[in-house]
Predict the structure.
Amino acid sequence: MLAEVYGVDESTLAILDHLEGFRSRNPEHSLFLCQPVETPLGEAWVYVYHHPVDAFESIRSGSWWPDH
């Protein structure tokens, strides 16, 4: 998976949670879940789609951008 890592404050994180459909008080109804991952820069949080993906085509490159 390709990703970018950013340092954000709590208010920015709350905005990102809203944008990604993550509901910390009701995660089972979230569009995405927020989960910790280890990176070369240390621990980071990533939004993971919270619904079945069996019907979707796998992205082998790890990037959803067409030119990567």
Strands lie at 32-39, 42-49. The longest strand covers residues 32-39. Residues 1-68 form one domain.
